[in-house]
Design brief:
Distance between the termini: 28 Å
Order of helices and strands: EHEEEEH
Largest sheet: 5 strands, antiparallel
Number of strands: 5
Shape: globular
Number of helices: 2
Length: about 90
Amino acid sequence: MSNCNFNIPFSGDPSPLIAKAKAAVESQNGSFDGDNTQGNFEVTVMANTIQGSYNVAGQIMNITIFNKPFFVPCSTIEGFLKSKMT
């Protein structure tokens, strides 16, 4: 299975974006471990695990999903995270 990769642009300090990402993951009973530069997250959806990582480069948060259910498209994960973080 190939990774999902997408970017979320932001302006200013990354702290509010990281806080929103953490809240989105934890609202689904997931785990989030990271800071303003990089981290990892994991959440279970419909008894399937989604795992990913992020890093912040300039004003872009780069997200990589490296484990997901085959029936959940990358675009669905990207849309969910962007709706919760922007």
